[in-house]
Amino acid sequence: MALRTDALFREDSYLREAEAEVLAVSERGGVILDRTIFYATSGGQPGDTGTMVFADGTVVPIAATVTGETKDEIIHVPAEGAAVPLVGSRVKLAIDWPRRFNLMRMHTACHLVSVICPFPITGASVAEDDSRIDLDIPDTSYTKELVSERLMDLVRGDHPVFTRWITDEELAANPGLVKSKNVRPPSGTGRIRLVCIGENAVVDSQPCGGTHVARTGEIGEIHIGKIEKKGRENRRYRLRFGPVVAG
Ligand SMILES: [Zn+2]
């Protein structure tokens, strides 16, 4: 039977620490809790790493976080050879915050690229220092200089980023909200999480389950480092932190 973990990061992506109860430990040592601040690998964003402290003070590094049988079951994967907690015991959690914050900045920047380049997204992957977003883009005017400049305009605009839940019916009535060509947001659960940017979502809104910064200004200096040709019309835009490097 699939277990259910309350995903605290979905309501507050800035939680760095929390306490939880151990619901189960899998045969392979994966720890399932009643609640967590650890984001599980999904939608192109890697899962969190960090530490879990047992009631007796044992500190265990968490090397990865993944989903189990369902998206609601979040599995904390301890480092190789680490101890596992007792079912029913309480543990203290802390995520690797500098890493997660960089992932939040990168992930939010990916949303901005999809606003600047309004074309179907065929793939995306977020990493701490280099993210990519693949688009079917027939227009060659979206150069790295142009996209970088517009990105920084949106960063400097310091627009609010917030979530809103809508129903399956509302999403069906607004098909333009979905920008992924191949990935459909999960429907059938009755509600879908929309990530909105700008006052009243004037900049953007799209279904997403990831973690984002609260204001675009927190992304900081960022640019398109490279554009790679992946197909006749498919281009891979690579995001890097820092100012544009000439040449
Ligand atoms: Zn997102």
Automatic annotation (TrEMBL):
One of its GO terms (molecular function) is aminoacyl-tRNA deacylase activity. Residues 1-247 form the Alanyl-transfer RNA synthetases family profile domain. GO terms for cellular component: cytoplasm. This is Alanine--tRNA ligase. It is found in: Cytoplasm. The keyword Metal-binding applies. SMART domains: tRNA_SAD. The keyword Cell inner membrane does not apply. InterPro entries: Ala-tRNA-synth_IIc_core, Ala-tRNA-synth_IIc_N, Alanyl-tRNA_Editing_Enzymes, Thr/Ala-tRNA-synth_IIc_edit, Transl_B-barrel_sf, tRNA_SAD. Its cofactor is Zn(2+). One of its GO terms (biological process) is alanyl-tRNA aminoacylation. Keywords: Hydrolase, Metal-binding, Zinc.
